[in-house]
Amino acid sequence: MANLWEDLETGPNPPEEIYAVVECLKGERNKYEYDKDIPGVVLDRVLHSNVHYPSDYGFIPQSYYDDEDPFDVLVLVEDQTFPGCVVEARPVALMKMDDDGEKDDKVIAVPSEDPRYDDVQDVDDLTDQQKAEISEFFETYKNLEAGKQTETLGWEDKQSAMDAVEHAMELYEEKFA
């Protein structure tokens, strides 16, 4: 069985087009995580707060970020996919975030093969409501977990997202290649 973090390329044309491995599903409270040792998706926990993921959420293959995890990606979808689904996506924004004192930024991406997102090319193409819902989720989803705090630190453009993907690819290469 292929390891989706190590064996799958970062994307067909990174950082402009990446692969997103879905772990958590839009509209759900289950926090799934890809376990590279199995390899497969496992239930990590159920979110303690009464919130749900605003869109599909997962990681970018062959990436490693400053929080010492694969780089997080939120893929804007109309309908949820499934844990372990690989989505070809285009980064359009970067949400800066602090998770318990660690830099834990999120790439915001759109599916390359969904025409509903053809006009979403950069952070300014996201609606204020989309950004507010995403920020609200990541600011509150750990509120009822003892001692955990998160803070969103603002939005950056597509170029910043692509630069962050390149950084995550370089960190992966340094640590694991």
Automatic annotation (TrEMBL):
Domain of life: Archaea
Function: Catalyzes the hydrolysis of inorganic pyrophosphate (PPi) forming two phosphate ions.
Location in the cell: Cytoplasm
Family: Belongs to the PPase family.
Principal location: cytoplasm
Top enzyme category: hydrolase
Cofactor(s) needed by this chain: Mg(2+)
GO MF entries: inorganic diphosphate phosphatase activity; magnesium ion binding
UniProt subunit comment: Homohexamer.
InterPro entries in the cross-refs: Pyrophosphatase, Pyrophosphatase_sf
Catalyzed chemical reaction(s): diphosphate + H2O = 2 phosphate + H(+)
GO cellular component terms, semicolon-separated: cytoplasm
Amino acids binding Mg(2+) 1: D67, D72, D104
Protein name, per record: Inorganic pyrophosphatase
Enzyme Commission number(s): 3.6.1.1
Residues annotated for Mg(2+) 2 binding in this entry: D72
Residues holding substrate: K31, R45, Y57, Y141
Pfam families: Pyrophosphatase
Keywords (A to Z) from UniProt: Cytoplasm, Hydrolase, Magnesium, Metal-binding
